[in-house]
């Protein structure tokens, strides 16, 4: 079924495909969640079960989530304008955040309802039809979760991945409701309120984790390791450059990737040659990785023996202080000052002042009476 619908919508440009796939996910989710809500609401009222009612309200929140998914993909597809020069793709994260807040609200409401049911337990009317509806809802939710996973992979959507997790979470909650109904049917134990309470806690936790993830996306989270590795591999493939550092990546939505990097080149190159090289790199990143890259040139005096000797000595000095420290942008200024950036990993215990003092003492002993002008880098990916 999913393949049938995908064949209908995956035509046109990548941008229009993303919108159509997102809308398809919203429509299919809306229809299936509305069906689940009505079915669970009916049997919950008939059986007088707070846990089934909690599960029904969870399906209602999923229905609202599907509406927000539809709106989110529609707004995210809007082109850039004068007020939003980087487009509207981040609205997909905003709709995901709204979905997460709704999930938390529903969880809190049924936490209160379930607690009241624990204090004042009442029997539930379990019947064959209740069990059938719960089994069917589990099957529908499994299908729905797989549908969201398939569509999320198709367009690389964090929102649909989160929604798929919520669908599979609903499978677990409905299984718990079904087991509690069966247990009360066979043993007459009044555990409905306790099961509802646990489900409410689970809904709250799930909503909180989703809120955290989407806030992270809106604030600007670190790219995943695979994306960083792909950029690093691409940069290492350019034989014309000497090296690279200070890679920064920021996003304005799932398909809006921007990055900047410092490229080390031979200091004897003229401006035209250097520009041709970095222009080709930026074009390659855009065409093959979908990343808008901006390169900053760092000329390196690789033909100056004295410069190379001092630079190699400095590399040895910082290695002995901490093996994972890295130097870049090294300069010898006015024959009196050594200027460079020092990349400091998060796990290094020494403060910047302590590092400066230790390096300065080592320079005085091994190189000579040079002052240090160090810029400490703590935030770069590479």
TrEMBL record:
The keyword Calcium does not apply. Keywords: Membrane, Transmembrane, Transmembrane helix, Transport. Pfam families: Cation_efflux, ZT_dimer. InterPro entries: Cation_efflux (IPR002524), Cation_efflux_CTD (IPR027470), Cation_efflux_CTD_sf (IPR036837), Cation_efflux_TM (IPR058533), Cation_efflux_TMD_sf (IPR027469), CDF_Transporter (IPR050291). The keyword Transmembrane applies. The chain crosses the membrane at residues 21-43, 93-112, 124-143, 171-187, 193-211. It is a multi-pass membrane protein. SUPFAM superfamilies: Cation efflux protein cytoplasmic domain-like (SSF160240), Cation efflux protein transmembrane domain-like (SSF161111). It is found in: Membrane. Residues 27-219 form the Cation efflux protein transmembrane domain. It comes from the Bacteria. Residues 223-299 form the Cation efflux protein cytoplasmic domain. Belongs to the cation diffusion facilitator (CDF) transporter (TC 2.A.4) family. PANTHER family: MITOCHONDRIAL METAL TRANSPORTER 1-RELATED. This is Cation transporter.
């Amino acid at each position: 079924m999913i393949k049938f619908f995908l064949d209908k919508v995956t035509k046109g440009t990548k941008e229009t495909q993303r919108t159509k796939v997102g809308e398809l996910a919203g429509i299919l989710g809306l229809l299936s969640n509305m069906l689940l809500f009505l079915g669970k609401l009916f049997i919950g009222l008939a059986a007088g079960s707070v846990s089934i009612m909690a599960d029904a309200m969870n399906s209602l929140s999923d229905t609202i989530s599907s509406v927000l998914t539809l709106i989110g993909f529609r707004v995210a597809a809007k082109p850039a304008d004068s007020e939003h020069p980087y487009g509207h793709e981040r609205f997909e994260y905003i709709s995901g955040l709204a979905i997460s807040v709704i999930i938390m609200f529903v969880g809190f409401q049924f936490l209160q309802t379930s607690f009241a049911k624990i204090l004042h337990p009442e029997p539930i009317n379990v019947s064959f039809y209740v069990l059938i509806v719960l089994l069917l809802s589990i099957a529908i939710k499994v299908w729905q979760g797989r549908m969201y996973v398939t569509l999320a992979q198709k367009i690389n959507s964090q929102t649909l991945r989160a929604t798929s997790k919520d669908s599979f979470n609903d499978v677990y909650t409905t299984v718990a409701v079904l087991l509690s109904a069966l247990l009360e049917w066979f043993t007459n134990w009044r555990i409905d309120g306790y099961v509802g309470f646990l489900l409410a806690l689970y809904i709250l936790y799930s909503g909180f984790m989703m809120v955290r993830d989407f806030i992270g996306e809106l604030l600007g989270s670190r790219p995943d390791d695979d994306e960083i590795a792909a950029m690093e591999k691409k940069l290492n493939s350019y034989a014309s450059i000497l090296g690279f550092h200070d890679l920064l990546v920021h996003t304005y939505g799932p398909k809006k990737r921007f990055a900047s990097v410092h490229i080390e080149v031979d200091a004897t190159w003229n401006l035209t040659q250097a520009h041709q090289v970095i222009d080709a790199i930026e074009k390659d990143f855009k065409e093959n990785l979908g990343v808008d890259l901006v390169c900053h040139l760092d000329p390196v005096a690789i033909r100056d023996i004295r410069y190379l000797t001092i630079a190699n000595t400095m590399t040895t000095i910082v290695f002995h202080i901490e093996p994972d420290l890295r130097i870049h942008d090294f300069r010898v200024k006015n024959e009196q000052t050594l200027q460079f950036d020092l990349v400091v990993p998060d796990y290094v215990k020494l403060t910047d002042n302590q590092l400066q003092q230790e390096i300065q003492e080592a320079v005085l002993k091994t190189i000579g009476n040079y002052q240090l002008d160090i810029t400490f880098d703590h935030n770069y990916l590479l």
